[in-house]
Every structure is written in C-alpha cells, then in structure tokens.
Write a structure and sequence with these properties.
The protein is of the alpha+beta class. It has eight helices and four strands, in the order E-H-H-H-H-H-H-H-E-E-H-E. Pfam families: Cation_efflux (PF01545), ZT_dimer (PF16916).
Length: about 300
Amino acid sequence: MDNHHEHTHCSGHNHSKQNALSLAFWLNLLFSIIEVVGGILTNSTAIIADAFHDFMDAGAIGLAILMEKISGRKRTSRFSYGFKRFSLLSALGLSLFLLAGSVTMIISAYNSFINPKKVHSIGMLGLAILGLAVNGFAFLRIKNSGGHHHSHSQGSHNHNSQSIMLHLLEDVLGWAAVLIGAVIIYFTGWNWIDGVLTIGIALFIGFNASKNLINTIKVMLQSVPENVNISQLQTELLQIDGISNIHDIHVWSLDGSYHVGSVHAVVNNSTSKFGQDIMNNIISLMKKHHIDHSTVQIETQDNHCDLHNC
C-alpha cells in the first residue's frame, strides 16, 4: 500500500489581514471614546450605550487579532496540523458577544419606549455620519484584505474574520439607524422611531450571529464543508482509469477556509504499477473540489482496507 499527502500553502494575504484587524481595533477603541463625549453632549443614552458596545467590540477584536497571530504559527510535533483552529475560539467568543449586544440593544430600545428623552438630533446626525464613515471604512478594509487569496475554498475569510466583519456591519447598520432616526426626529419629533429601528437591527444581527455561531461549531465538529460534495467527489474518483473502489473519504475544515481530506483508493492489480499517476490524478481532482490538503492511500485488490476490516 502506498501513502501520500499533499497540501497547498496560503498566499501572503495574512499580513494585509493583520493590518486590517489592527486598524479595526484602534478605530473601535478611539471612536468609542468619541461616542461617550458625544452621547453626553447630545443627551443620547442610545449613543452612550453604543459606546459601551464599541468598547466590547474593541476588546473582542483585540482577542481576535491575538488568535489570528497564533493561528498563523507553523506546525509543531504537538500540533501537527498547525494552529489554524485557534481562530475558531475567538470566532465563538465574537458570535456570543454579538448575541449579547443584540439583547442589550433590544433592552435599550424597550427602555426608550418606557422613558422617552428629548435628544439633540443635529448632534446625533453628525455622530451618525462619522460613525458610518469610521465603521464602514474598517469593514471594507477587512473585507478587501482577503481578496487575493488563491485557495479554492469557500471564501478568503475564515470564521474569525467573518465574525469581526459582522461586528463592524452591526455598527454600520446601527449608525445608519441613528442617522435615519435623527432626521425623522428632527422633522417630526417622533422619538420612538429610534427604538423601532434599533429592534429591527438587533434582530438582523442576532440572526446572522446565530448563523455564524452554528457554522463555527460545525467546523469544530469536523463536518463536511458546504462547498464540498463528497458524493460527487467519489463518483468522479471512480471514473479515474485504474481505480476499482473508493472508500473512507473524509473531508473537514481547519478554520472554515482551509480544507483537509483523505481517501483510500483500490486500484486494479494490472494497473497497480501506475499507482503514482493514479495518485496524482486523485490529488488534482481533490484540489478541484476545494480540498487544500489531501492524503491518499493507494491499495490493491488483494490487499486493501476492506479485507482487513480496518
């Protein structure tokens, strides 16, 4: 029996992503300070509450940066697959932070209905425009930082980066609601509009955070990536000349973007001497199916895994 494994390396977009994450961290931290001052000056409890939320965001993104650095380390004898999965830990934390933030936003909106306050709509409008610009810029920087990833995987961002982008998207939508609310309040005096918009955004963010949390857990449980069809892969593998049986196919993902797979291939006795060519064809086909790191075991009809019940 012959064993072989092959893997591809990620391109050098990691440095760009690290810079984007650091920028998002400092923007959130500095802008949260501005929010505190602006919330006091405009008498807006919603803005002050959002300042606290941004402080949480900054802390969460700081944790994500640390986990991203750890996940980029080379493999060791203790962690033979490397440290890519460490990024999933912060993805879990970020998703939970988002869910907690959504609940906080709903509670804040409820309180605004019970105890409405007169706010300075012009000041709210100015802060909303600044908030949209700051968080929108940070969101686009992280989104574009993975644009040159050459992998065939589902996307250029792992679950950690997706969670951070969702954080920033929450802030962008939140400030869009503040902007709309400020305009409506200025012309109508309907302070309750702000609460309605806040609840809508909170539900939207909660839904996406829950979806990201579920996807992250699936990766940790080694489920088959959504962009890999094992049945189709097996069918195409069986079409390779010289292969009589395919079994023990396993495909999972390390961090949501870097996929790993293994397969046992039984070759005809008459073609067993061409095992290397068959192996290369298998590896090429697995690459086509978005598998970055593949392990192939070549077996013969007289001596294969099924005969030994392994």
